[in-house]
Amino acid sequence: MPQPSYPAKPRPGDRVAVVSPSAGLPAIFPEVYELGLRRLRDELGLEPVEYPTTRVLGAHPADRARDLVAAFADPSITAVLATVGGDDQITVIPHLDDAVLRANPKPFFGYSDNTNLLNHLFGLGVVSYHGGSVLVHLGRGGAPHPVSLDSLRAALFTSGWHELTAPAEWTDEPGDWRDPAYLGTEPTMFPAEGWRWSGPATVVEAPLWGGNLEILHWLLAAGRVGPNADYAGCVLAIETSEEMPPDTEVYRILRNMGERGLLAGFSAVLVGRAKAWNHPRPLAAAEKRAYAEAQRAAVARALHEYAPDAIVVYDLDIGHTDPQQILPYGGTVRVDAADRRISVRY
User: Domain named LD-carboxypeptidase N-terminal: which ranges (predicted)?
Assistant: First the structure.
């Protein structure tokens, strides 16, 4: 399969679609959503355009697909941003009009359940962007994190190489959207320990594929992942969600990918920092460390067994933790294990 091509980028002042192809959480948290929209206008200079299901909870998959297709088809729209993730976007994908998406490629931004659409666009030959959320990142309490905002701005408006750097702080303990004080309160941040590297001290430059690990497992079960040859030589990016899958499940998902022959084809693997805290499951500091260590060990075990020659980098800020850095999905990534540097071509 040929490497996907980059769609044209928006410019400040452009109209961009804001859609809810997964959960319509703006219906439940309108204040957080409106804060995200204001920052989209004020911080990024873009004019958000909503669609009929953007603020609808439980919209039919066909209706959500219709909004996505309309956003891509509209010549006045220059990018498409997801409000948030969810858990049923897999039911939306069959309703899409692929001919329209191919004929009108646009940058799409989303992560988590939006892995469904990122993977679908990859198959259509369109580069998209893993990361960004109107609710989570632009609607962050207090202010957007500078690392998240800088990465989103670069991915939206630039087309060259952008070097990722390990932030000095991070958190997986976001504020509660139900708390009246949320909008004015920044989350508690913790010192970051930096990335962890393993594998050969070589340089890999290749297209990126992957996303949320749980969603990738669903896509494989549903037959939505192409033949192994389509991903051979790619850089794999994986991260886990706020559902906090146990390390045994993380290992088994990767083992299944290995038994299929998929893992052996990846030249490098970027592993997101594990989210080890959630409002329904607020682990203590020692429990969080144990969870993250067990997840790293599970990933390392599977990669040692099925992709022993791959460069592996752990604890990147590319998923459900804060801040978040954007990855070009289908776009080019350079992983330099000799100098321990990672660059992405936005």
Answer: 16-131
